[in-house]
Design goal:
This protein has 2 domains: 4-60 and 111-134 and 142-439, TIM Barrel, CATH 3.20.20; 447-557, Sandwich (Immunoglobulin-like), CATH 2.60.40.1180. The protein is 22% helix and 20% strand. It has 13 helices and 24 strands. It has helices at residues 10-13, 28-31, 41-49, 110-123, 235-249, 265-276, 308-319, 326-338, 365-376, 417-421, 427-439, 442-446, 453-459, and strands at 4-9, 54-58, 61-63, 93-99, 127-132, 136-138, 171-172, 191-192, 211-213, 218-220, 226-228, 254-257, 282-285, 304-306, 344-345, 383-386, 448-451, 467-473, 484-492, 498-502, 515-522, 529-535, 541-545, 550-557. The relative contact order is 0.10.
Length: 565
Amino acid sequence: MRTIIYSTLVRLWGNKKAHAQLTPHGTLEQNGTGTLEDFDDAALDYLASLGVSHLWPIGIIRHATQTPLHSWTDCPDQHPDIVKGQAGSPYAITDYYDVHPTIVREPMRRRETFRSFVERCHRHGLRVIIDFVPNHVSRQYDGTHTPQGTTPLGAKDDRSKAFDPNNNFYYLPSTSLQLPNRSSSYHEEPARVTGNDCWSATPSANDWYETVKLNYGVDYRPDGSRVSHFDPMPATWLQMRDILCYWAAEGVDGFRCDMVEMVPVEFWHWVIPQVQEQYPVTFIAEIYQIDNYHKYLEKGAFDLLYDKSGLYDTLYQVTTQEHSVSAIAEQLIYNNEEYAPDELLYFLENHDEVRLASPYFADTAQRGLSAMTLLALATPSPLLLYAGQEYGERGIDAEGYSGYDGRTTIFDYWSIPALGQRDPADPIYQSYHRLMQWAQHPVILRGAFHSIQEQARQWGGFNAERTYGYLRLLDPAEQEPGETIGIAVFCNFTAAPQCYPLFLPVSKERGDTQQLMRVTKQTYLEAPHEQLYAFQPWAPLIVKLPPYSVQLVELRNTNSGRISG
């Protein structure tokens, strides 16, 4: 079964309030929140029916929030000036060993609620992935639930030193932190280095000023050089390994690791085998530099890498008219040659990026679905869906801290109304449901990728810069009469109708001059159209593509002839 990961903020998933009922910058009391209990049997059945194999709930580990906690939980409050948004970023961790209290209905039983959630997911055949945030924590990290016998982060730091291999944080001696809000009453002395490698006591509003960077034994020198102190092993390495093992013991099946390139690769080469010796968990890397991909896969490190800088960027640039479709072929060929199918995680949406259907990307849900189809069926690699994508969520609300930016907020209490309704009759949902079925098709999982663009370009008659097609074809030894042996995918990125010529390779075994095939043309908006067609080198099948559309052509053999690429 192909890996399909579904990602959602817990606070968004179960909040059924319509947008008209929400207040920008609204508090928990005003706007409400989803909880782990909202992932009930019906919700998990819904995800399973969509073909999801892994659920990634964002915001599990306790993080900074402006919501007062001390009066109704056993957690301290955070200073509002170092929290972004009312709800706060789920990536500003305040205690690695605690479940966030606002995502459960009974905060004092939040660990038991989390365990029940994991068990419920497992009963429905879903594996659970949570975030591991290794590079930075909240400025007010408290670690109050750190297990006995384990040292909370920063508790033993020598704050008089800018760097020490056994310090958990980096310090700026003889300075006081000055937040972008200069009137803030928050006090930090000496100032610590900010999470995005800002080595200044006066971080800007564009810095990750609410976080502090963790020290993995790398001394960052004023001249820009870096000196590693990995022997003896830095304290942070051992502490972070223990945190990973804690959550693995709680039953999670994997970790999506945040900003891995900001942490020494040597740490990953050490810690991942350490954890996987004890627990069969998956490690997924959020990574952005394509030149770094290989070193984060070697030495038994990550199982999966984000392909943000590869096919995501390519399809974004093609969809927004920045590049021609030739970039798709180049990137697909490169990825297929350089990486195994199970090494890259493909997506067109996640919580950090603009929504696929937003004005900043495809502009409509239908155009976004076309690009997603092209991506999803190009390889058998794992896929990532972001909550609401299957309904064409556009992310065009000004929710509060997160403004009108085409993204769904991770900082505010908000909702995605379509997730509350989960209408199976929604046409975009039906299309995504069908796409996920196609994504598991044996031809997609086992068939070879064939670039047909150049042959089609030579035939002409269509816009070869804005229309793209490819063929997935089973090996001749696997082809059976009457069965589907190939699937071709075509995408029109223009406002004009196109006619794309589909050629098939001639069987090398028989040397046929023609190949009779049963052809089924399928779009998401029209009923399938089936016909018999005799493919010949001089007579391609003409596939008609409406404006901004995608079409699939399913090929079934009608005799014992086999097609080889």
